[in-house]
Design goal:
This protein has about 400 residues and is α/β, with parallel strands linked by helices. The chain has a domain at about 50-180 and about 240-325: Alpha/Beta hydrolase fold, catalytic domain (Rossmann fold, 3-Layer(aba) Sandwich). About 35% of the residues lie in helices and about 15% in strands. The chain has 13 helices and twelve strands. Helix 2 (about 85-95) crosses helix 13 (about 305-325) and helix 3 (about 120-135) crosses helix 4.
Amino acid sequence: MAIRSRTLLGGTLVLTGAAALAATAVVRRWDAAGDPCGGEPLATPKGEEFLIRTDDGTELSGTVAGDEGGRLVVLAHCWTGDRRVWGPVAQRLVDTGHRVVLYDHRGHGRSTVGRDGLTVEALASDLRDVLDHVDARGAVLAGHSMGGMTAQAFATGHPEVLRERVASLVLVSTSAADVAPDARLLAFMRRALVSPRIDRAMGQRTLGPLMVRNIVGRDAVGSHLRAVVETYLATPPGHRLDFGNSMAEMDLTPGLPDIPLPTVVVTGLRDTLAPPANSRRIVSLIPGSRLVTFPDAGHMLPFEIPDDLARIIAEAAAAVTLAAATTSPGAPAAKARKAPARKAPARKAPGTRKAPGTRKAAGAKVLPTPAAPSPPTPKELRPRTAAGESPAAEAPESTNGSGEA
């Protein structure tokens, strides 16, 4: 049987004949793959709904879930996603006693668009309003993809609120600049984002997952790809384009050296949307930050490695709790210990201890960087691959917090 296809915009295909049969077999294999999200990557924990009306008329819809006494975590989602993208991680955090805030960015999910339009700067202002609304104190702020850009824009554009409301940052699969590809590809992407024909193709049960396959890492899971398609198609085409243009023009790097908070940057080494080099650049600019890499993961880390992300965020929350306990008024001063005469055993880098109620990733390994002058040298954690998997074919990276890695 001949392989036939019909071209849409810029090479997107509607498959027929043998190609369609082969594609169906591939998608069925993805649908049968093991899913750390239990087949429901967009399920979110139950909680209290809130609605915020901003100064420009935007209505932000969100959810607060978990124990009122738990350490607060605020989660900002990706471009063409919604609050549900963080669902698998949020549920794990709630299950371990954290209080979690999820919300839809303007122009996404159930949030509307106000007079200030659809820009990264407007997202930063919205995040400020969310933190004020929940009266955040000592929160861990985690952002995925465009949510990570939002967190950086907020940290650099609203430093007073940052110091008042946030104690730690976790930046996931994100960039600070250089989001736009070359000019020709950017022009194609701008047409594709608003193309009804491409939207119709993505809506097909078999073709949709194939069209977004490169957004995840080595092991594709059908439910993850379908979730990506669902939230993408639910985002109005004009909103996709406006945010895409804003991200293409964005450069947050000048303000990153002024971020005063402990920061963890997480990336999948197979991420093609926010390449690992972009994460290394962020780490090189934020003093004392550290990089965590996952060799087989792609861009959708909240779906691909929810256990690991929940652990990283929980560890950041535990570090905040410990710091608050040791610096609060009236806290007893720690007694200095005399070092033993014998050679001390090797110790793990700070911040790698297992947080209460969370699981440490199997094979997680700490790779300290060489000694360097102040500011303190950030450290990279590189989890090993699971048994039977091949490690990434590259030497361990090092970062220095003062320049490009």
